[in-house]
Amino acid sequence: MRENHDQASGKQKQVKGDLKKGLGKLTNDDSKIAEGERDKDKGKIQEKVGDVKESIKKSW
Q: What secondary structure does DSSP assign to 1-60, as a single string?
């Protein structure tokens, strides 16, 4: 299955969030950890939107 833009961007945001979260843990920066969590959550939502779009596209 080929990924659509939303799925790919969502996965990228999740990776970016994981990196920020890890950096925040290394530097003991709670705001960076929270920022990473938000990015990761946004990525998960965007990926799910992409999944729904693909599902709709397949049913047509």
A: ----HHHHHHHHHHHHHHHHHHHHHHHT-HHHHHHHHHHHHHHHHHHHHHHHHHHHHHH-
- With CA atoms as reference, report the closest residue to 3 among 39, 53, 56: 53
* Residues 46, 13 contacting (CB under 8 angstroms): yes
> For every one of its 60 residues, what pLDDT tens digit does the chain have, with 9 covering 90 and above?
578 999 999 999 999 999 999 999 999 999 999 999 999 999 999 999 999 999 999 898
Determine whether 32 is exposed, middle or buried from the number of CB atoms within 10 Å of its CB (0-12, 13-18, 19+). Answer: middle
